[in-house]
Amino acid sequence: MDSAGYTTLTRMAGLKRELQAIANNIANLSTTGFRKEGLLFSEHINALGQGEDSLSMANANVRLTNDAQGPLTLTGGTYDLAIEGDGFFLIQMPDGQAMTRNGAFTTNQQGELTTHDGYHLLDNGGAPIFIPPDAKTVSVASDGTLSADGQPLSQIGLYMPEDPTTLTRNDGVRFYTDGVIVPQEDAVILQGYVENSNVNAITEVARMIEVQHAYTLSQKFVEQEDERIKSVISTLGR
């Protein structure tokens, strides 16, 4: 295969990965706290030598997370919490701590505040949050202070990675970092709300059609190049 064919194949590989990212975004339109994901394309140029054309290859292995605020929905749930501004809730996972924007929480049998799949929500000191079983009213202030029957119990922590580029996504709405996380004090917590996915369905479908069209054109080009090469070989053979 000639250079044009290889260049086109790398473009098709990148477009395929972008289609997968778009499909995942669309699949998570209704996922609480989900943040849209995209790809970063890069170009690698190989200079073949003096007086020769260079060879350009595309690559799309870097995934980018869109950190735009998702729309907020009023639920009225006592343990439904939404973040207005930057920051993440901190939860304790079996393999360490993770950050999330999914603020739909509940309590377990021990009265601890957890995600719906059982992982502890942590306070601003990194400890689990306990709700007394006899508490009649539970309120959360905008700064994360959690009170039961008017008595402060704990303060829900909000965190940000010191270097946002170190964030890696896992399980759709959970993020990990190998770097340092720091308290986030500028954001506001809203009780009785959840943050919806920040994916715009119309934009994603339009982008999917655009990428599919670009992939089809590249595929046709490869097929035409293949026919051209076959024709040249056949002519030379005669």
From TrEMBL:
Tell me the Gene Ontology biological-process terms attached to this UniProt entry: bacterial-type flagellum-dependent swarming motility
The chain positions of domain Flagellar basal-body/hook protein C-terminal read 191-234
Keywords attached to this entry: Bacterial flagellum, Cell projection, Cilium, Flagellum
Determine the domain of life of the protein's source: Bacteria
Q: Carries keyword Nucleotide-binding?
A: no
The name this protein carries in UniProt is Flagellar basal-body rod protein FlgF
**One Pfam short name:** Flg_bbr_C
Mainly resides where? other
Q: InterPro entries, from UniProt?
A: Flag_bb_rod_N (IPR001444), Flagellar_basal_body_rod_CS (IPR019776), Flagellar_FlgE/F/G (IPR020013), Flg_bb/hook_C_dom (IPR010930), FlgE/F/G-like (IPR037925), FlgF (IPR012836), LlgE_F_G-like_D1 (IPR053967)
Q: Which residue intervals define the domain Flagellar hook protein FlgE/F/G-like D1 in the entry?
A: 82-148
Q: Where in the cell is it found?
A: Bacterial flagellum basal body
Q: Name one GO cellular component term.
A: bacterial-type flagellum basal body, rod
Entry similarity comment: Belongs to the flagella basal body rod proteins family.
Pinpoint the Flagellar basal body rod protein N-terminal domain residues: 6-35
Q: How does it assemble?
A: The basal body constitutes a major portion of the flagellar organelle and consists of five rings (E,L,P,S, and M) mounted on a central rod. The rod consists of about 26 subunits of FlgG in the distal portion, and FlgB, FlgC and FlgF are thought to build up the proximal portion of the rod with about 6 subunits each.
